[in-house]
Write a structure and sequence with these properties.
This protein has 13 helices and 20 strands. The chain is an alpha/beta fold. The two termini are 46 Å apart. The protein is globular and about 80 Å long. The mean pLDDT is 94. The protein binds adenosine-5'-diphosphate, aspartic acid and magnesium ion.
Length: 411
């Protein structure tokens, strides 16, 4: 008998009918003899609706109160699913994060899980009950409700699986696995049978929102067997694994990730003296703004141009800080651009293949897409381009790295 944690996302519990379907599915697993812990998200659209309500009161809602409110979305779905199971003769009980005691730090809206009390869940499982736990939420040491950041139910699922030493954590969603890129953007994208934790972590960090980044971090750290599956279609899904098989067919690139979350800032005509990077980025980091990509160009007149990207939410703030810095260090001008996108190719196969980056640049050049910034690591290459070319770039790279589904190639 196995212990399985099953997480169902927003669209999978988006209506009462779907919740009934999920209950049918859980019932079948239960009848197969496995112990089941289910984690659910709020109904799709509900978290956004609640945030919109808060924004009608204030542009910057008090984080603690926002958590009290957005956590209600998941409280509704756990109760509905438990009712649907009980109606089918399956003993079940629902718990909020607080009731389980999913202890987090106090960073409201982006809390981290510190500890999970497994006692209640274990005794319910022992008594033959299916345990339904609210995703996305926890409680801090002072008893305040916290939430884990958007997409945080994935992390609840994986963290519970780690705490309970479950045999598998199954993430049920509206796609039948992890694809080479977002199938909504590239219909020729292919499902991957397997992807390594390392690659999945890069994909998630670089914009593939199929799994929340922290859930992948957690799964890697505690070696939780993790699988992404379709909620209502049969299939093997995608296994996130530790092993990096060395096979002849191993593709160089496993996937392409992209995001529109960043904005670019440039400071020009900066006197090029030692410490200039620190003078520019020190105040940005002091303002608690994270910098992603950085490029510095030196001109003939002993000045330098310095460009970097930040999250779009931090753009206005960063611009103000940079303008102040420009005045202080005597730079010529400051400019910014929010209409950029970042496209990244990811794959452990890159380690053993040369020329991957130039193949990427060639494919983009063929489409006359200008590359504004580049950054590389051992298993990824990212470029910043104009936002309007994003989809074209992703499709071109998908083809260039031979990721298109064979049956549909040339369509
Ligand atoms: P849930 O509500 O179940 O948590 P999400 O919307 O968070 O679902 O994640 C599933 C979505 O992730 C898919 O509908 C798909 O559009 C998107 N996605 C982005 N990149 C990928 C990828 N590489 N593979 C699969 N899905 C992806
Ligand atoms: N309901 C939350 C959100 O929409 C958490 C989740 O779905 O994972 O972000
Ligand atoms: Mg999600």
């Amino acid at each position: 008998m196995a212990l399985i944690v099953q997480k169902f996302g927003g669209t999978s519990v988006g209506t009462v009918e779907r919740i009934e379907q999920v209950a049918e599915k859980v019932k079948k697993f239960r009848e197969g003899g496995d112990d089941i812990v289910v984690v659910v998200s709020a109904m799709s659209g509900e978290t956004n609706r609640l945030i919109d309500l808060a924004k009608q009161i204030s542009d910057t809602p008090v984080p603690r109160e926002l958590d009290v409110m957005v956590s209600t979305g998941e409280q509704v779905t756990i109760a509905l699913l438990a009712m649907a199971l009980i109606k089918r003769g399956v003993p079940a009980v629902s718990y909020t994060g607080n009731q389980v005691r999913i202890l987090t730090d106090s960073a409201h809206n982006k809390a981290r899980i510190l500890q999970i009390d497994d006692q209640k869940i274990r005794s319910d499982l022992k008594a033959g009950r299916v345990v339904v736990v609210a995703g996305f939420q926890g409680v801090d040491e002072h008893g305040n409700i916290t939430t884990l950041g958007r997409g945080g139910s994935d992390t609840t699922g994986v963290a519970l699986a780690a705490a309970l030493k479950a045999d598998e954590c199954q993430i049920y969603t509206d796609v039948d696995g992890v694809y080479t890129t977002d199938p909504r953007v590239v219909p020729q994208a292919q499902r991957l049978d397997k992807i390594t934790f390392e690659e999945m972590l890069e994909m998630a960090s670089l914009g593939s929102k199929v799994l929340q980044i922290r859930s992948v971090e957690f799964a890697g750290k505690y070696n939780v067997p993790l699988r992404v599956l379709h909620s209502f279609q049969e299939g093997p899904g995608t296994l996130i694994t530790l092993d990096e098989e060395e096979s002849m067919e191993q593709p160089i690139i496993s996937g392409i990730a992209f995001n529109r979350d960043e904005a670019k800032l440039t400071i020009r005509g900066v006197p090029d003296t030692p410490g200039v990077a620190f003078k520019i980025l020190g105040p940005i980091s002091a303002a608690n703004i994270e910098v992603d990509m950085i490029v510095q160009n030196v001109a003939h007149d002993n000045t330098t141009d310095f460009t970097f990207t930040v999250h779009r939410n931090d753009y206005q703030n960063a611009l103000q800080v940079l303008e102040q810095t420009a005045r202080e260090i005597g730079a010529r001008e400051v400019s910014g651009d929010t209409k950029i996108a970042k496209v990244s190719i990811v794959g452990v196969g890159m380690r053993s293949h040369a020329g991957v980056a130039s193949r990427m640049f060639e494919a983009l050049a063929k489409e006359t897409i200008n590359i504004q910034m580049i950054s590389t690591s051992e298993i990824k290459v990212s470029v910043v381009i104009e936002e309007k070319y994003l989809e074209l770039a992703v499709r071109a790279l998908h083809t260039a790295f031979e990721l298109d589904a064979p049956a549909r190639q040339g369509e």
